[in-house]
Amino acid sequence: MQKQISVWQFVLLLYICRIFSTMTYAPAMGVGSGGVSVLISWVLSLGIGILVLLPALWLHSMSGDKNVVMLSLSVWRRLGVGIALCYFVYTMMTAVSTFAHFEFFMTNAIFPQSSTLFFIITMWIAAVYASSMGLEAIARTGAVVFAAFLVSFGFIVFASLGQVDLVELKLPLDNIWKEVGASAYEAFSRNAEFVVVLLLLPHIKGNLKKGVLAFLCMLVVTSEIIAFLILTVLGDYSATQTLPYYTLSSAAEFSIFQRLDALHMTVWVAIALVKIALYLFLSVECLQMLFPEKHKKAVSVGCCLLLFVLVLPFCYSRTAFDGLFRAFSSGIPSILLVIVFPLLIGAAMKIKKGRAEHETTKHTSVGAASAADLRN
Amino acid sequence: MYHYFKNKMSAAFGANAEEPPEEAETAKKLSDNLLDNMVTLREKCRNTSDFMAREVTFASIPMSMMAMEGLISLATLSKMILPPLSEAANRGVKTPQEMYDYIRTQTVIGMDVNDVYTTDEIFTFLMSGFAVILIDGMDKGVAIGVQGFSFRSVSEPSNEVNVRGSREGFTEPIRINLSMVRRRIKSPKLKFELFQLGSESRTDVCMVYMTDIVDPKLLRDIRRKLKQIKLDVVLESGYIQPFLEGKPLSLFSDVGTTERPDTLCAKINEGRIAVLVDGTPFALIVPYLFSENFQSLDDYCHRPYYTTFIRILKYVSFFFTILLPGVYVGVGTFHPELFPHALLYNIASAEETTPLPLVLEALLIHFIYEVMREAGLRLPRPIGHAVSIVGALVIGDAAVTAGLIGAPMVMVVALTAISSFVVPSIYEPVAILRFAFIILGGTTGLYGITLGLTLVLFNMTRLNNFGVPYTAPISPFSLRAQRDVFYRAGWKKLGKRSAKIQHLSGVDIHENLDQ
User: Fold this and answer.
1) What is the mean pLDDT of chain B?
2) Chain B residue with minimal CA distance to A278?
3) Exposed, middle or buried by CB within 10 Å (0-12, 13-18, 19+), for A278?
4) Which of A110, A136, A258 lies closest to B338 in CB terms?
5) pLDDT of residue B320
């Protein structure tokens, strides 16, 4: 498989996708709502992230030119199809979830009077076009959007610093470690980008270990800053807000600009587009591996249409949206796709390789014995 | 019955039925009979008033001299070719073969002397300003370069005006342009690869490159693409530009153009390939990057700090010109809370008196501006000035006084228009994007503008012609290459490292065989 993106483009792409979820951090929604416990848990999630990605790195060291789906298909044909479908469903549902989040933000925070369908249609068309441009274009655009995010983030942080009130940082009186643990687990379970690492492995040029570490460190630092500002600037008010980071940007005033929410909105739209395009691209790629070459275009078209169909119920029904959120937060999909499947595939590959070596040795010894017999 | 069909056929094909089937016979081989050859050639050149042929006899050998009127220098012909031919008898020339050898090897009657074997070759040389000599008894002729047609002299390029640097710009004849390049790079590694394009026009096209710098794969790919072009006529480099552009469809072109020989030399020295086309002063440059639209030769003559300032100015102007009207309309319509109160009050009071919504006002005024720009461009200069005066009245105080548009909109249009001239090489995409963003801003606010801008970005980053990303070195990012993107390092630093295009990060030149 052709190496298409450098490890730094990959890191920025992962970061941009992950930051979309981080910006939706709301103290009221998660289990770990205890302020300081969230800050501690995100540092802890760095270690968890490294541990969780070990199976991916192990697989990469065994076969660097194939991703997890290709490996599963090469190890077991039928079970491999099932595993490929699991990855397809996960990436497709992540795209749907991002879409639903984006739509929720737009119709609740920015344009409350606007039609949901308008945002669905416009974003869907844009995402289909963007994903059709391929991984290189998604990664390169991701890098530019990253720069835009840094600028907007810098403005918002700079404008909010004056309103920081450290009194708002409250330490939970009991069960602190339970809260920290729950929060760290939630951070892991909502990190769909671990799956992206497994799927994009063969496309990346450069030192993957360094890249993964850089991604996790950047993520922890940004998450800490966002959580710190939300907790200390908004205080208890943040618990009443659905999108506290947006509220924070609305309160921030910089120079002649009355507020920075429009800046946040523009960056959010760009990030959402990049993330949806990436997950749509990955879901198409997962499914294309199961079909012959001649059906590839039909698979792409089918996936794009499926995204549109799936998005509708999750955007219109709050229950379905919450259900999807809970399914991701349970952590079961992440455990299966990031830990269990890679470990199983890796183990199967080791066994297969061992058997093949054993067979070769057997044949060689049988051949040597026959040659010795012939000589005698 | 036979006569009936004959008449019908004649009627169907008309006068053309009697015309010689030119295509089939143009490549006819010359015979050793001069009369036969001349009959064939004269037949082909029937109704061609600029064809000149003269039968002469030197050293008792019948010969024929041909040329196209207006394409040759009669003075050169009479000074360089006729005197040695008159001397032929004195030099012991007796047979046609001796005459041929005498012309080819024993006299200096021109630097560019070629053998011709077919009528097709004769026409090609004649149309290129050669004189052709046919000798009775020889089944081949001699073509001698005596070009002498009139052309526009070398002058300052109108589209790439510089404060410092050379005042020379390319002109129409390709040979003059090649000489201007050669004068600047006196290296044997500089190659001019000449061939013809256009089945009818047979236009000379020349690939210019440095053998030791250009990537061989890139060279092969461009050569193949050029030779695959199937066009009847090639009158300008713009005819072949689309054949060199990559996929997908984009408003931006990954093939650059220049009128300046010094710019062309700088580009080929970075491993690019230039394509010169006879009859146009615009040379093509491939591959071409987005950031190169913001560079000019002046940048390398000024002090680095000033160049950096100009570069930033250009980038800001680019974003101003495509986004300002759209953002103004979008914010004014959907997000007025972003404006400071005082400004918002001024805008609101100005718009209160106008009958049109902000988006229509912006579209109308930009449409009028584009009409006047186009009119000013095409009209003769004296009338063009009149258009400017009328324009100043239409998009100006009169329009505001009439209550058609608000005063802030005039400011926006003026700023946008002036900014667009800062980077003239990408005016085409800029003009279209500006309209697109006005419509997006007016209908969907900042959301639509962001979505549109991100999609344009996707499109631009997808352009990867010949394996060179159009958006390099911005994305894929290369820190080292930034020394000549947003800022310019001094020559001491610029000269230290290679500026070859194949050394940029993200560049993976490969032959594209699917096109």
Assistant:
1) 86
2) B458
3) buried
4) A258
5) 93
Query: What pTM, to 2 d.p., does this model score?
Result: 0.86
Contacts of B477 in chain A (CB under 8 A): 8, 143
pLDDT recorded at residue A311 = 94
User: Could you tell me the two tokens for B461?
Assistant: 């980053």
> Distance from first CA to last CA of chain B, Å, rounded?
53
Nearest by CB to A126, from B446, B451, B506: name it: B451
CATH topology of domain A5-360: Sodium/glucose cotransporter (1.20.1730)
Record the tokens describing residue A97, joined without a space: 């979830």
Cα(B255)–Cα(B330) distance, integer angstroms: 33
pLDDT band at A240 (very low <50, low <70, confident <90, very high): confident
The beta-carbon neighbor of B461 closest among A110, A119, A140 is A140
Q: Do A126 and B447 touch (CB under 8 A)?
A: no
pLDDT tens digits along A158-167: 888 888 888 7
Q: What is the ipTM of this complex?
A: 0.90
A126 shares contact with chain B (CB less than 8 Å)? yes
User: How do residues A37-55 score in pLDDT, each as one tens digit?
Assistant: 778 888 888 888 888 889 8
Of B195-209, B265-279, B470-484, which range is least confident? Answer: B470-484
Domain segments of chain B: what residues? Answer: 15-145, 174-299, 302-462
Q: Closest chain B residue to A256 measured between Cα atoms?
A: B340
Please state the domain extents for chain A: 5-360
User: In the numeric block, which tokens belong to residue B95?
Assistant: 């047979």
Give the Cα separation of B174 and A122 in Å (integer): 50
Percent of chain B exceeding pLDDT 70 equals 93
Contacts of B266 (CB under 8 A, 6+ apart): B297, B300
Count of all residues that appear for chain B in the document? 515
Q: Is B487 on the interface with A (CB under 8 A)?
A: no
Compute chain A's Rg from CA coordinates: 23
Judging contacts by C-beta atoms under 8 Å, the chain B residues touching residue A110 are 447
